[in-house]
Amino acid sequence: MKTVLLIASACLLGLLSTTGASLPYPILPPLFAGGSANALTHFLGLPPKLLFGIALMINPLGLLIGSAMLGPVSDRFGRRRLLLITAIGAAVGHGLTAMALVAQSYPLFLLARFVTGLLEGNGSIMRAMLAERLTGGLRNHALSWLNGSFNLGWLVGPLLAGLTVGPGITLPFYIAAAALLLGAGLAALALEREPVGQGHAAQAGSWWAVARERHALTLLRHGPLRTLFTVHFAYACGVAAFYEFFPLWLVDVGRYDTCQIAFVNMGMCALMTFAALFAGRASALEPRRRASAQAALAAAAILAVGFGSLWVGLVGIVLFGLPHAYYNATLQGWSADQFAAHGQGAVMGLLSTTFCLANIVMALAGGVLTLVDTRLVLIVGGLLAAWAALALRQWSGRRLELTVEAK
What we know:
The protein is mainly alpha-helical. Helices cover 81% and strands 0% of the residues.
């Protein structure tokens, strides 16, 4: 029973964390692009679309820092304690977000989204907790279920926003806060207290030293991992441009409201979740070559949105979920096999950190590009994903050539 509660608590908190992260995506575009002028959307007289881009960037920035720091800190201060603190703190962050919207305070809104992102970077704590307390096949299944919960949050968040924003723009955030508090309560009952400050982490110095010496970016000292970072960063920038700005494109091109944006996102995420059930199957094709084809299809979907009409773009948005699910499964599986000697946690952390960095970069760049045309962001994103597809194919080809020469 304790094992069931442990897994359920981790999966619930994982779901609620990404739900909170994705919640504003269908809410902000109509607010900044289609809403009436107010102190929030015209802060300091800046263009609303620029403010929109900054608002998108601030949560991934907090998520990036939290993802890098919270895991090592939990080594010293305990998984249960840090998990409960971060879950309750993220709930407070949602409440502050709602207060900022009521007060029309852009600085408070940024602060609330940053703090929420920082505390929602607790996925590394959940993974470490399951890896420590479970063994064998059950551990592998539990980690897979946790990853599925993270992905499902990207469907639930926009859907929750679309279904509950009608009575008031703050209601979705209050619901998310209440759900996180409920999840934290379940975790408090399910998780056993652990001894704190013992073992390897305690012998490694202060929490800051542990975080500084073991963060994922230290892997970039190795050439093949630098190549992986470069290629995946380009693809992730394409994905970030798509995720962050297709809702704004729907407002600009189709005059969609929050509910309509949420249902379009639901279609994409439903297809992506379904595809993930089969994406991990074995294949005879070299993994990087396979990932190259999948990245090319994702790039085509993004470019269809950037260049196409409303209906062509809608088809591109929904179909994007199919190659993207397969790309993630292919690249993560290959990376785990190829770079296992560097530590699976560090390698998976590098991929996660890369995606967070891409979200920050494209939120900033996209906020500027939208001043010209929202479609320009999507076109740039599609071209970056296409370059990643080409680079993966070339990387695979070089490896195959070396193998032939060695023989």
